[in-house]
Amino acid sequence: MGFCFVVAVVALLTDFGFRDYFVAVMKGVILSINPGARIVDITHEVPPQDVFTGAFILKAAYRWFPPGTIFVAVVDPGVGTERAPLILKTRRYFFVGPDNGLLAPAAEEDGVLEAYRIEVRLPQLSSTFHGRDVFAPAAAYLSLGVEPRLIGSPISQWKRLEIPEARVVDGVVYSRVVYIDRFGNVYTSARSLQGVSYGEVMCVETPRGVLRARYVETYGRVSPGEAVLLINSEGYLELAVAMGNAAATYGLRPGDEIKIYRC
């Protein structure tokens, strides 16, 4: 097509893992179209088919990338069905992936300007690997400066996905587990503990019992093995165990309800 190769960042997020060849093949397709692309891995360890966790990670990560970055997110249990392959153009970025809610929290936070259903694809389109056949080529052409209107047709609607918010009733914080990191730290949907001072001990009610956790500024303020509550780097109220694994210790999983109140 006579494109000039340009340096563009393409950031990948999938549930493919690294055991198989899937991630490498997507990178190969992108580099075959634009050898000058700079490919960054956000993660490929999203739990299989877990669209919500993928969306949460994408929302947490995207804002730290330079303007113009093209995010390709593939957590796609509906691959090969009627769900649309999507480009969302926002104020600063492009988001490419399935229209199943995966892209929405990040893209909508940045501000969606235009949306497109992808029509460009590799000749040998499969029904099970749109990461290779649809999303990687679309991202590669975007990285060359091709306008999204030349890659797909405009649409006005896409699937939303809401990250739950906490609520406070009579001093009790009602929240949900929204993410668990590799350390077993439990992100809740709460953003603060209003009126609580550092050092106070709070009761944390989980589906598997009530525990006591100290509200602190950082993990090192308590002894190893002690449960803590703190505001983490993403601004979420987190339940952690110093030098331990809170999720495993208390049997917590994404979606669990957590109530927090003064003991």
Automatic annotation (TrEMBL):
<keyword id="KW-0949">S-adenosyl-L-methionine</keyword>
<protein>
    <recommendedName>
        <fullName>Adenosyl-chloride synthase</fullName>
    </recommendedName>
</protein>
<feature type="domain" description="S-adenosyl-l-methionine hydroxide adenosyltransferase C-terminal">
    <location>
        <begin position="176"/>
        <end position="258"/>
    </location>
</feature>
<dbReference type="Pfam" id="PF01887">
    <property type="entry name" value="SAM_HAT_N"/>
</dbReference>
<dbReference type="InterPro" id="IPR046469">
    <property type="entry name" value="SAM_HAT_N"/>
</dbReference>
<dbReference type="InterPro" id="IPR046470">
    <property type="entry name" value="SAM_HAT_C"/>
</dbReference>
<dbReference type="InterPro" id="IPR023228">
    <property type="entry name" value="SAM_OH_AdoTrfase_N_sf"/>
</dbReference>
<dbReference type="InterPro" id="IPR023227">
    <property type="entry name" value="SAM_OH_AdoTrfase_C_sf"/>
</dbReference>
<dbReference type="InterPro" id="IPR002747">
    <property type="entry name" value="SAM_OH_AdoTrfase"/>
</dbReference>
<comment type="similarity">
    <text>Belongs to the SAM hydrolase / SAM-dependent halogenase family.</text>
</comment>
<feature type="domain" description="S-adenosyl-l-methionine hydroxide adenosyltransferase N-terminal">
    <location>
        <begin position="10"/>
        <end position="151"/>
    </location>
</feature>
<dbReference type="Pfam" id="PF20257">
    <property type="entry name" value="SAM_HAT_C"/>
</dbReference>
